[in-house]
Design brief:
This protein is an alpha+beta fold. About 25% of the residues lie in helices and about 15% in strands. It is built from five helices and ten strands, in the order E-E-E-E-H-H-H-E-E-E-H-E-E-H-E. The strands form five sheets. It has a two-stranded antiparallel ribbon. A two-stranded antiparallel ribbon has the order 2-3. It has a two-stranded antiparallel ribbon with strand order 5-10. Helix 3 crosses helix 4 and helix 4 packs antiparallel against helix 5. The longest helix has 18 residues.
């Protein structure tokens, strides 16, 4: 049984090598348990996330292993926030279960890929998994940073085009792992418009 968590953490972390003290600001970490908490900030607890990450090879999850509880909470809060901002369900007529709930789940009116109704008073497993995966990916790289410009120079006669070498490596905000999790339940990503080409700018 998961308990309602509300962490207000004020941590002093000594950095002996630098002779400095890092002060961490209080972090409100409140796990949504399906009751529509108006103060909730995460779909999962750190212990749930640790259990999920156990299935990932250690060599691929260094950022998670090296993170303390505070940083893991930060990743889960950020992952939950971006999940709510980007993931939606266009094929359903679902609504939030409670008017004053802080997050997009719990929701009423959703069904899974087999057609079974998803409990509207709990957080679906796929939502938990997606938010953990999102938080983990954010711990590796800031996926919210602006993409680079693509083509940075173009001339005419003879035609000459110069590409920004970083454009093809710019990351999507929502990673493939999260997309595959939500897609099975009819989830889509806001802002997706199909195949995208690098924009052309005047040289």
């Amino acid at each position: 049984i998961l308990l309602h968590h509300s962490y207000h953490i004020h941590v002093l972390l000594s950095r002996c090598s630098a002779g400095m003290v890092e002060i961490r600001t209080p972090l409100s970490f409140v796990v949504e348990l399906g009751q529509g908490d108006p103060l909730s900030t995460s779909y999962v607890s750190v212990s749930e996330a640790d259990d999920y990450m156990d299935r990932v090879l250690d060599s691929y999850k260094t950022v998670w292993i090296e993170s303390d509880e505070y940083k893991k909470q930060q990743m889960l809060i950020w992952g939950t926030q971006l999940f709510d901002e980007y993931v939606y369900f266009p094929s359903s007529y679902s609504i939030r279960t409670y008017m004053r709930q802080a997050l997009q789940f719990p929701r009423a009116g959703l069904v899974d890929y087999d057609g079974y109704t998803i409990d509207h008073r709990s957080i679906p497993t796929f939502v938990k998994q997606a938010s953990i995966q999102m938080g983990f990916e954010l711990g590796k790289v800031d996926r919210t940073s602006e993409a680079t410009r693509g083509i940075v120079q173009a001339t005419v006669g003879p035609l000459s085009v110069t590409f920004d070498q970083n454009y093809s490596h710019s990351v999507r905000t929502i990673p493939r792992g999260v997309r595959s999790i939500v897609a099975r339940f009819g989830g889509a990503i806001r802002g997706d418009t199909g195949l995208k080409f690098p924009p052309l700018y005047r040289a």
